[in-house]
Each structure stands twice: as structure tokens, then as C-alpha cells.
Fold this sequence. Notes:
The complex is a heterodimer of chains A (171) and B (398). Chain A has 171 residues and is mainly α. Chain A is built from nine helices and no strands. In chain A, helix 3 packs across helix 4. In chain A, 35% of the residues are buried. Chain B is α+β, with helices and mostly antiparallel strands. Among the domains of chain B are: 40 residues, no CATH class; 212 residues, no CATH class. In chain B, 62% of the residues lie in helices and 12% in strands. Chain B has 13 helices and five strands. In chain B, helix 1 packs across helix 3 and helix 11 packs antiparallel against helix 12. At the A-B interface, helix 2, helix 3, helix 7 and helix 9 of A face helix 1, helix 3 and helix 4 of B.
Amino acid sequence: MTSDEDLMLQFQNGSREAFEELFARYRQPLYRFFRRRISNDARADDLMQETFLAVIRAKVRYEPRALVRTYLYGIALKQVSAERRWQSRRPDRPLTEQEATLPPPDAPIWIKQALTKLEEMDREILMLREYEELSYAEIAKLLHLPLNTVRSRLFRARLALKTLLAGDLCQ
Amino acid sequence: MPMNPHPVTHVDVMAYLDGELSPEAAAEMTAHLTQCRACQDVAADLQGVSRQISGWAVEVSESSNALPANLASALASRAAGKTKRPTSVWSWRFLTQHPWFAAAAALIALIAGILLTRAERRALKTEAALISQSDQVFSNNATAVTPPIASFNAAPTELSAPPKAVALPSAETPPLVVRTADLRLSAHNFETVRVDLDRILLQFNGHIAQLNTASPTGEARSLTATLRIPSSRLEAALGELRKLGRVDGESQRGEEVTQQSIDLEARLNNARHTEERLTEILRTRTGKLSDVLEVEEKLSQVRGEIEQAEAEQKSLNNRVSFATVSLQVSEDYRAPLAGTTPSVGTRLSNAAVDGLHTAFNGFIGLIQTILAAGPSVLLWSLLLGSPAYLLWKKLRHR
């Protein structure tokens, strides 16, 4: 199977098929990524498409120094940040903190509540590891953190989540 | 007492479970986990957390792997080169790909920098020389100023046109100088000054920026005005103004604003270019509403900058085109005629009235003194007078 990086280079050279293959590979993971961070289903789909649009627009700037996966999630993280900023600036409907940072309502309630209580950076590291299955190095690169910080924060987040989930079950 | 420290950390256990350890470290961890109950518990906890959190699944429709219309259209546009963004000449990528271009640009920038520095230095020197010259020629002392003014009048073009030393190397961009002059006059015939001033302004296409006149009773009248006169006709206009009276003082200054004008022009060009680009983006690009609003906000900001720069440029051009003359004209002071002398009867009557007033005031003053000092004098007289009287009496009886 052709690697993502090769597909990206082929796309840079004008191969539409390469892009379609990349889209097929990452459409669902990216949609899930947004769906777990944005409460609106349609908006999550929009952001997924906008991520690919950004790839198309910036194809000449891609350099094969990073994995395509890291590159895509890097764009996606920026899209989420921009979306949250935009939502918070909307005068007609100010977004509550819960809506801005929390999982959508279809998540199991105990997981949602437990994730809510984590520190934002810890939650992001945990979600990138658990759901996007990124390596520690990829997370460190994406969030601009030292590798050891990612390790320690991930461990702290998991322990905190264990306590929170245990507390919810006991209630 | 813990003689053997624990060989692995719990974070290592987590890294092991996440597949983040090297093969050697992973093998050691596997062996360790078979023996260490505490680490087994940690591993079980971490796996439990992962298992629980994985309960949040997001459903995605499987049948929509085809490219959405917007992506397909963006791809088609790219392929056709419709929206292909040309690589900017100043982008890092371009410069790294064309090092000869970067080197040439750096060389040109260096030469331009040297030339500009030299021109600026020369302009500064010339300005200093001009100010020094004007300070030397025009002093505030009226007696000392007469001969230099005569020589200044004799060759007005030497100062009205910038001296050759002032000119910048480029013939296309003559130096821009903001000229100002102060003129103090004493006029014998003050009544005609105002009329003559209007005539001079009309003759030289100048105008009054500000004018104040003062006519205090019993003192010399004065006129203070700020005049704006086309710079090219300043010398001739000053010559006419000097004829309004005797010159008490005169000074001139020249401030070169060429660099300021160039900077302003560059700022304006940049802002206009940015405006064009933003307008083009608004016209051709489609995107999120937030992006459009952001571009519009930026466009509004740039237009504000353009208006401000244009206003500054207009003001600067106006200052260069029109010299400012501060004119102060004082009337030659003439002592007023003495008033009529009163008659003898009036003078005697006035003296009598003054005498009565003085006598009455003296009487009132005496009463006031007695009333004010009387009680104190009486008290001290009693205190000191009684023993003195008794002593005097005793001595007399001896």
C-alpha cells in the first residue's frame, strides 16, 4: 500500500487520484476528530472538508518532513481553535464553556462528564492518544510540547480519568 | 526499608502499554510485569481507562467516500491553474530556490541604503548650513540687520531657490523645504498698513491664516498676523512687506521634509497595494463568513490608514507649497498731547476741599488712635504710676 507521504507527493505533482485516496483514508478519522470536539454534526463535517481544502490550497507548501497524519491533525487542531474562537465571538449566541470545549451530547454521559473535568491540555493529549491513536512524538509535535511533558501529562490525565470514572460509577 | 528501588516507573508501564518503549525496554517490562504486583495493578487500571473511554464511538456514514463538490471544484480549479497562487518573489521558498536572485536583491538593497544614507547626511548638512546662514544674516538687532538684509534683497533668487549644495543627487526629486519667516516692523503710518497688507497678499496669491489687531488707549497700536504665501514667491512678498515700515527684526528657517515625503508616499503605496489585494480577495474568494468578516475588517483598517496618510501628505504638500510668515507691525509711539490746565478758582476750590478732607481725616484718625490705644495706656499708667507716685511721696517726706 502506498504510504500517505508518497500519496501527498504524488498529489503535489498533480495526481488527483492520490488526493482522493488520502481523502478516503482520512475522511472518517478527521470527521470523528471534529465530532468529538464540536457539538454540531454538520459543522464537524464542514470542518473536515475545510481541512482538506486547506491541504489543496497549501499543497505547494507541504514538505515531507512530517507525517501526513500529523500534518492533517495539525490543520484540524487549528480549525478547532478557530471555530471555538469564532463561536465565542458570536454576539447573538455566546457559546458556553461546556459547548466550546466539551464533547457532543451523544457521548456517553459519564465519559463526557469525566473529560469535562480534566485540564484542557491534558484532555487534548488524552483524546489524541486514545481516539486518534497518535504516538507520543506526534502529540508532542502537534501541541508543541516536550516529549516527557506529553508522557507525564498523559499519565496524569489517565489517572484522573480513572478516579473520575470510578466516582461516577459509585454515585 | 526499601533496599531495592523499583526499577520501572508507572509512566513506563503506560508507555509499554501504548507501545512507546524500545524492543529491549519492552522485553524488560514484560518480564517485570510478571513479577510486580503493583505494576500489574497500574497496567490494569490504565487498560481499564482506555477500555472505558473507547466506549465513545462516533458513527460515520460509510457510503460517502466520494469527494464533496467543493473539494472536487477546488481540485479542478487547481488543476486548471485558476486559483493557483503565484509564488511570491519574496517568499523564503523562492529565495532558497533562486539564491542568485536573493544575492542580487541584497546587493541592490545595500547600494540603495548607502545612497540614501549619503543623501540624508548631505541634506542634514545643508539644512544646518541654511539655518546657520539665516541666523547669521538675520539677527533681531535692527541696526545690525540692515546691511545683510540689503544684500539678501539684492539677490533674492539665491535663497528662494534651494542652493545647489541643498539639491539631492536625483534631479527628478528636488528637495522639499518647508519655509517659515518672522518679520517685525515699526510703521509710521499705521492706518495704511492693513490696506497695504491686503494688496500684497492679493498680488502674491497669499492669504491670512490668522490676524489680530490691538488699539489700546494712549498706547501704540499693533497688528499681528500669520500669512501663507506661495513658497516660490516668498522673497518678493517679503520685499513688499518690508516696505510697510522699518524692519525691527527678521528671521527665516527652512526645514527639509524630502525624506518624510518619500516615507509617506511609500506608506501610502503599500496601503493602496494592500487594499487592492484585500479587495481582490473579497471579490474572488469564497469561504467562511468569519473569514470574510475578518478581511472586511482588515480592509476597513487599511482604508483608514490610507485616508490618514493622504491627509498627512496633503498637509505636508501644503506646508511646502505655502511658506508661513509671522508678521508683527507696531505703530511708532507718539506721546499724547497734554490736557487743558484748570482755572485758578477751580484750583483754589479744590485745595480748600482737599484741606477740609485732610483735617477731617486727621481728627478721625486721632479719635481712632485714642480709642485703640487708650485702655492700654490707662492700665499701664495705673500699674506703673501708683508705685512710682508712692515712692516719690516717700522720698519727698524725708
